[in-house]
């Protein structure tokens, strides 16, 4: 047995040549590798965190403010859970009497497991929408969105890929890409953590509506957060030795961001978690527009302050801006399968108002024991 191992580990005929090549490049590669190892060790000793992506740099503020949640008129969302693992759900959405858009109906389906998320829908006018997210690894995620209209020139396809490193992120996104002529709108963004609290990045937009037209613009941003919690530091320390560190989630108690746009406008946001159930968010946007054929010069700023309260069976969002607009949204869940929503907005400057009511109903083909095992219901 030992004779076989000795023969298996005996040097091959190419070993002298490989050693000669290694010795030839060692005077150049050795210092480079040593410098990189020292730089990597210095970077790890700084306690850097995963900063997230540029697209989600103000995600916490968007979760508090009403821009993505407000509705007017009447709406009803009916969902039927067919399976919990993998998740499969059918949805019916109705919207009636809205001042922002006419009455509509949408049928959708959602499928999700640990690595794949699929969502599709079709409305009463025949418009088909789809969305797909594929997680290849904890650091690589590909996203695809598409809309198919029954009118020519209105369909849309968007492809995006996010890479999340231990201390940085890099994203590529393209909208309606032209394979042959390179037309479309392309986005390149990156965010790098410089310290446990400070991250900086950029986003470049390349627009090519026609083969002979090319426009580029770049915006710069910075993100300042509270210090990482002990839980985040402990999770990062559990990475096995000899393996690249995995991006760990980081939930700071407060976040401040600033973005300088190509037009010279500045957008700043601030998010503060006051408690486990109360969040507040502030958004400031400047509008600097020089005089042109489109109109006179404009210099103004808009500030929006919002708060979100999470109760045991309800969520309340309220906000007010510097233009005198006040809004609110209440989502009251009476049972795990039924919720009632009411929203309202008053614009004092324009002497206008909007109001909306809605319900959400969720049913399931699963038994009570299966829903408790899936975490959908609390055991009695």
From TrEMBL:
Pfam families: Porin_3 (PF01459). One of its GO terms (cellular component) is pore complex. Belongs to the Tom40 family. The keyword Membrane applies. The lineage of its organism: Eukaryota, Fungi, Dikarya, Basidiomycota, Agaricomycotina. Its main location: mitochondrion. Channel-forming protein essential for import of protein precursors into mitochondria. CDD domains: Porin3_Tom40 (cd07305). InterPro entries: Porin_dom_sf, Porin_Euk/Tom40, Tom40. GO terms for biological process: monoatomic ion transport; protein import into mitochondrial matrix. GO terms for molecular function: porin activity; protein transmembrane transporter activity. This is Translocase of outer membrane 40 kDa subunit. Keywords: Ion transport, Membrane, Mitochondrion, Mitochondrion outer membrane, Porin, Protein transport, Transmembrane, Transmembrane beta strand, Transport. It is found in: Mitochondrion outer membrane. It is a multi-pass membrane protein.
